[in-house]
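Narrative of accomplishments. A recurring question from our advisory board has been how the design workflow behaves on a single, concrete structure rather than in aggregate. To address it, we present the structure tokens for one chain from the evaluation set, followed by the sequence designed for it. No filtering or post-editing was applied between the two.
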């Protein structure tokens, strides 16, 4: 499967693809669930804020902003 560190390594590319590809393979809900499973709440604050800021500022049509909403950010 992989570790939280592995997920953190790929997360920037995952977010990029979710905001630039017309039909991303990963839904915002699945990403939020995966972040929660990767113990997102215990990540260093600077890392959490970076992810939440990106998600909140993503174009609405990508639905990535729903990740921040689901994670309470």
């Amino acid at each position: 499967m992989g570790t939280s560190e592995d997920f953190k390594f790929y997360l920037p590319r995952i977010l990029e693809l979710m905001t630039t590809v017309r039909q991303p393979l990963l839904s915002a809900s699945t990403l939020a669930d995966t972040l929660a499973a990767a113990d997102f709440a215990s990540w260093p604050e600077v890392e959490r804020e970076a992810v939440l800021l990106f998600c909140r500022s993503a174009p609405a049509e990508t639905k990535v902003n729903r990740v921040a909403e689901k994670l309470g950010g």
